[in-house]
Write the structure tokens for this entry.
Amino acid sequence: MASDSSSTATATVNTTAINALPCDVISTHILTKLDGQTLASTACASPLLHTLCTEEKLWRDICNSTWTSISDPRVREIIPTFPAGYRSFFSDSFPTLHHGSQTNHNRRSTITELISAVDIKYQNTNVFSKLEVTNTGTHSFLCSPFWVELLDSKSPVTTPAKFYGPGDDTILSELENHTTLSWIVIDPTRKRAANLSSIRPVLADRSGVSGEVKLIYATVMAGDWSEHVEWKMEVTCGVKGGGELIVKEVNMEVVDLDGRILSGEDSLVILEEGMESGERKLGEERERYMEFVEIGRERRGRVVRRQKEMDFEDKIWVGFFVILFLLFLWSLWGE
């Protein structure tokens, strides 16, 4: 009890001391040094700090330093229209979207345009950024498998990152441990955003033939009929002879437990509900992904076993009718 009182008193003294500083000193020399999470927490300390911590410029600078891709003029026009501008955008986009509630299967999506703001960093240095606008209101998109492609193998991008140590295993380990992906999707009509990436890879694999490294980033979300779906992002990388890191492919799809790619319509319904009611938090992405993969593997295994059982039953029935037919012929021959 005494310890709690002491902590409260210390916090009160610290808050009072900070409040005694000139506002321009707090804004210029203290708040500008904080990251988004710390700034949001600081805003709860006192009414004065709340006012200073909600300055639009602070949040604009934090967002721009966190995500290079949102410097695109199209996004710079959209973010200020969010309820609290850049502060709302950061709250929506950091860290990762988690949505565990069942999707309303009778709902129709109202998202007619989806903006993808994608940033890849290696060792905390930005190596690839791109903004992609997808027209999601067309019949062809809604009825086709959900697929967003930012980069294909025909147009690889050479990055500033370089590898100096030899060995494919070293490259695989380096990319798995030090490559992060942020994939923010923005609904400009409803003024909402969400980061669908797990930030760090949930899986990394190297091709023995080409030497390419495929990094999988994923977020598992609730889907229709109590099912779960995986928002799966793949980044394919390679290394040039001089050690330069190349980004070859960047794409995203939505997969169910049976391994089928969801349609654009079904994917957008899940995304829209996730944007509205999902939590933004970080942690257990790899565990959730591995659990999803294992459940899907078990389900597909049961389907295969059931199919084999049905095939065996069909063979028994075929054999039974063949025997009956032969007996019938035998009876005719005996007559």
